[in-house]
Specification:
It is built from eleven helices and 17 strands. By secondary structure, the protein is an alpha+beta fold. A hairpin with a 4-residue loop joins strand 6 and strand 7.
């Protein structure tokens, strides 16, 4: 059996678990989030938010609280918090909180107030919260997750169950023991995939990809994140394009970084437990750094190895003395809303939104939201370390990549 970072971690975890039901192992992505928070001078979690607008006065705090408690009972990961046991990173599952989960916010600037509340995320209150801000124009609902316990696919599942619980008592609950068992089994399956994907063939593949990768340009030294600046674009996807927007996006991001010498390869998030019904963080961060073929061709080859943990790719790069040693300049995320339209509450449809004011976790983050025949692009960058000209280059290349559709709008 081959060695791997995953296998080594599981050996350490076995030494501290001691059969404790409340202690869960961490996936590779979870360990990265845990490390990032432990090295942040302000102890900040990486927040994954979902925002929904409804007409003013529609939402009931009491019904939201009932629905949120139902979700927390069903999905133990959302009650979890990263911890260490004997020096080993773990997820510690806490009981259902005694205090309220839903917090109502009243402020002149609801956008700013919600982001401030999400950004101030003490370690104690858990990894899931529901915030409601009201003004004369709207009810703005923010559902916040510590990314360590929830990936993008899981947010959709939580949203479905939260809205279902708002209308009724929600689905029949598993016992607490059954819910813990389902989550533990899902994490163990994910870790088994990560170990299997860390074998010699996978490492040889990724070594060939990263051998000449650029070292990275923005934020390579420790720094205090600056204000986030954003650009937004909308693209109509005619014909067969709605089914395959991701390779086009990936190629555009790669092309943009290739125009800026010294940048690291584009990275993207991949994975999830689609259809499994388990909330958790089951993603991986994958690089796209083609050698001879184009990005789209090499991406198809990379798909065989997308489960190789990011940390294994970093270790392979360092072993071959590549210039790149793990830094990321740009991360691409695709959110697929084609199967999950905005919810309807009491007969009134909500609307997904994304207020300005977020804190950017990476130098540049490109978020693409795929909704039926349209793609909404948001390019966020840390203005303290990424020059405005570089951010404009990235936005322009993304625009160029879809220009031939004739349906581009900024």
């Amino acid at each position: 059996m081959h060695r791997s970072i995953t296998r080594t971690y599981l050996k350490h975890y076995a030494n501290v678990h001691n059969g404790a039901d409340e202690l869960m192992p961490l996936t590779g992505a979870q360990r990265r989030f845990h490390h990032a928070r432990s090295t942040d001078p302000h102890d900040r979690a990486q927040i994954l938010p979902v925002f929904l607008e409804f007409p003013p006065g529609l939402l009931s705090t009491q019904r939201l609280e009932q629905a949120a408690r139902s979700v927390l009972l069903r999905h133990p990961a959302l009650r979890g918090a990263a911890d260490t046991a004997g020096g080993v990173p773990v997820l510690r599952i806490d009981p259902l909180p005694e205090g309220p989960i839903v917090r109502e916010i009243t402020a002149p600037d609801t956008d700013r107030a919600l982001w401030a509340a999400l950004d101030h995320w003490p370690a104690g209150p858990g990894s899931f919260r529901v915030l409601l801000a009201r003004d004369e124009r709207r009810d703005l609902l923010a559902i916040g997750f510590d990314h360590l316990v929830c990936d993008g696919e899981s947010t959709g599942l939580v949203l479905d169950e939260l809205m279902s619980g708002y209308h009724s008592a929600g689905p029949e609950q598993d016992s607490a023991e059954a819910a813990l068992r389902r989550y533990r089994e899902a994490v163990e399956q994910q870790l088994a995939r990560e170990h299997e994907a860390s074998g010699p063939q996978a490492l040889e593949h990724w070594t060939s990809r990263v051998r000449d990768a650029g070292p990275g340009l923005w934020g390579t030294e420790p720094h205090e994140p600056g204000p986030s600046a954003s650009a937004r674009q909308r693209v109509a996807l005619p014909g067969t394009a709605p089914h395959r927007p991701f390779p086009v996006l990936l190629e555009a991001c790669h092309t943009a970084l290739a125009r800026i010498p010294g940048t690291a390869p584009v990275a993207y998030t991949w994975g999830g437990q689609d259809g499994a019904g388990v909330v958790g963080c089951f993603i991986n961060t994958v690089l796209a750094n083609p050698q001879h073929d184009g990005v789209r061709e090499s991406w198809w080859e990379d798909l065989e190895f997308v489960d190789t943990p990011f940390d294994e790719v970093v270790r392979a790069a360092r072993a071959c003395q590549a210039p790149w040693t793990g830094h990321l300049d740009l991360v691409l995320t695709l959110i697929d809303r084609t199967r999950r339209p905005a919810p309807v509450l009491d007969g009134v449809p909500g609307r997904f939104t994304y207020p300005p004011g977020n804190r950017t976790q990476e130098p540049v983050i490109v978020t693409a939201v795929h909704d039926q025949g349209e793609l909404s692009l948001r390019i966020d960058h840390d203005s303290a370390i990424v020059p405005g000209a570089a951010a404009t280059t990235i936005a322009d290349v993304l625009a160029e990549s879809f220009a031939d559709t004739g349906q581009f709008a900024r």
